[in-house]
Amino acid sequence: MASQLTLQGARCKLLRFEIDERPYVADIERIREIVFYRPAIPVPHAPTFLQGVMDLRGVALPLIDLRERLGVPADRRVPPTHILVVRLMNELISGVIVDRVCDVLEIDADAVQGPDDHEAQPSLCRGVCRVKEELILVVDLGAVLRTEEYSLLAGVV
């Protein structure tokens, strides 16, 4: 099941990042660290969401292209600058490639509007929040992979 935002009292901390010059936010509690982008080593016959693997202090870290997961056209790609090292479901650690990391926001928890309660399956979108006059999509990094994709990833790395 997709995670809810980690609340601290009535506030939550979100990392703001960009993809295709659009802002997104994600719960900072799921992010273990942020590293500068390095090109991945391609993996033959890998699923399209897997850009490859990289060495992170002796560990082969699978790199997931968040642009592909969000459906952002590849023809508008800009060179990415950061990788979010995140804990996915089943304690799998992976890198999530974003165009740019911006800052950390602390917002009121009730400023986040979630999706409808009748949602059939976990979604990458956990809602939207308003920061000043801008609506920003809240991304659930724990839902970057669908359940059936974990076995695909395990078979590659």
- Report helical residue fraction: under 10%
> What's the domain count?
1
CATH topology: OB fold (Dihydrolipoamide Acetyltransferase, E2P)
**Helix/sheet category:** mainly beta
Q: Give the CATH superfamily.
A: CheA-289, Domain 4
CATH class: Mainly Beta
Poorly predicted sequence stretches spanning 5 or more consecutive residues = none
The ordered H/E elements are EEEEEEHEEEEEEH
Counting DSSP E segments of at least 2 residues, the number of strands comes to 12
Gyration radius over CA: 15 Å
| Cα-to-Cα separation, first versus last residue | 23 Å
Q: Mean pLDDT, as a whole number?
A: 84
Determine the number of helices (DSSP H or I, runs of at least 4 residues).
2
Overview of the molecule:
By secondary structure, this protein is mainly beta. The protein has helices at 66-70, 147-154; strands at residues 7-8, 11-19, 22-27, 31-36, 50-56, 59-65, 82-87, 93-98, 100-108, 112-113, 125-131, 134-139. The mean pLDDT is 84. The protein has a single domain (7-154), classed as CheA-289, Domain 4 (OB fold (Dihydrolipoamide Acetyltransferase, E2P)), CATH 2.40.50. The protein is 8% helix and 46% strand. It starts with 6 loop residues before the first strand and ends with a helix. A hairpin with a 2-residue loop joins strand 1 (7-8) and strand 2 (11-19). It is built from two helices and twelve strands. It is globular.
